[in-house]
Design a protein that fits this description.
This protein is mainly β. It has one helix at residues 2-18; strands at residues 26-34, 45-53, 56-63, 68-78, 81-87, 98-106, 109-118, 126-133. The chain has a single domain (2-133), classed as Lipocalin (Beta Barrel), CATH 2.40.128. It is globular and about 40 Å long. The N and C termini lie far apart (42 Å).
């Protein structure tokens, strides 16, 4: 009986380690998934370079050709979900946009909702993206 308990404890510990946010560290690429009728012309794909250390998420969002590279700020991890903002560096007639991201990760798959929250030609529209972790 003790042997079974020991193995169950090892399996639970292994499952907890596998579910730890550290698996989010790495490069992820997502492609525009909708809504199809009104996608952002300059953001067909987004590449996230994420570094997760405990509950701290840092990194860079490469948000299409415009708004471009944007540091990740105000990140929060809740299980398999990350929320953060990213402000681009490329200016336009509307200014430099800030986008809010809601990211859900299942294994090596990522679902993303990007909502422009400031200085965006898209207004406050939300766009869906889906992709995977890139092999390194």
């Amino acid at each position: 009986m003790k042997g079974i308990f020991k193995w169950m404890l090892i399996l639970v510990a292994a499952a907890m380690l596998a579910a730890a946010p550290g698996h989010l560290t790495g490069t992820w690429k997502v492609l525009f998934a909708g809504p199809k009728e009104r996608g952002p012309k300059t953001v067909g794909s987004i590449v996230f370079d994420l570094k997760v250390d405990g509950d701290n998420v840092t990194g860079l969002a490469h948000i299409g050709s415009w708004p471009g590279d944007a540091p990740i700020t105000d990140a929060k991890i809740e299980g398999d979900r990350i929320t953060f903002t990213a402000t681009g560096h490329l200016d336009s007639t509307t200014g430099i946009p800030t986008c809010k991201f809601v990211v859900t990760v299942h294994g090596d798959e990522m679902l993303v909702t990007m909502t422009a929250v400031n200085n965006s030609p898209w207004g406050s529209a939300s766009f869906e993206y889906a992709g995977k972790k890139k092999l390194e």
